[in-house]
Amino acid sequence: MPTRLARTLLGDGGCAFACDPDIPTGHNAVCWRSEVSPGVLLLTAAPSGFAVAPFSALSLGSVGDDRTDTEGREVAICDASGAFYVSLRHAEAEDRPAILLPLDDMIEPRLDVAASLVRRLCGKRVDLLPIRLRLTPLQKARLIQHLHAFDILRDGGGRREVAHEVLHSEQARLPSVEWKDSAARRKATRLIQDATALVERGYLKLLRGD
Fold first, then answer.
1. How many Å apart are CA 40 and CA 31, to the nearest integer?
2. pTM
3. What gap in Å lies between CA 138 and CA 209, rounded to an integer?
């Protein structure tokens, strides 16, 4: 039976198979479900009577990934701002594209994403991915720390190991009495708490730009 964490990941768009450890994580783009990520733009077919131009991913940037499944075609378009995902949900979405905007609680970031695409299609030099959906270098570094801490915890480690391997603190070598009141122990505790929350469902806030 899947663990609670596994069920959570599957329910939020994760995959039920292991990644090949020989393939670097940066090689393949990951397209989240549009229900959980406003960064995935939905295209459908425009009604008849509208004079619309065909959609071309290559005209917007380099294509990082292009796949087709039972729900349609998904394309990752890469530019300086990151990876911009387009999900074509209709057989004629590429020839007669229309933007589909669900009126959910993520409508504002969805509008930002749609506006970026429209500006690029109109020839304006703007980044595809809105600022609110990008990760800063500091956020990326912090996320790496969170994932490292969670891996240590999952493998049976504790706060000392996190302080030593993630925070690189010499205080991790202190005797028990001194370690108990150390700043490194407090930082490791917060890091473990934040990492656990992030892995269990907190990562959805990152996808939403919260």
1. 8
2. 0.72
3. 15
Q: Tokens standing for 171? A: 């205080």
Phi, psi of 208 (to 5 degrees): -85, -10
Tokens of 67: 């796949």
Helical packing angle, 137-154 and 183-197, nearest 10°: 90
User: How far is 101 from 3, CA to CA, in rounded Å?
Assistant: 34
**Alpha-carbon gap, residue 113 to 119, rounded angstroms:** 10
Going by C-beta distance under 8 Å and a sequence separation of 6 or more, which residues neighbour residue 128?
A: 60, 61, 77, 79, 81, 82, 84, 116, 117, 120
Residue type, 192: I
pLDDT for 74-100, tens place per residue? 998 888 888 889 999 999 999 999 999
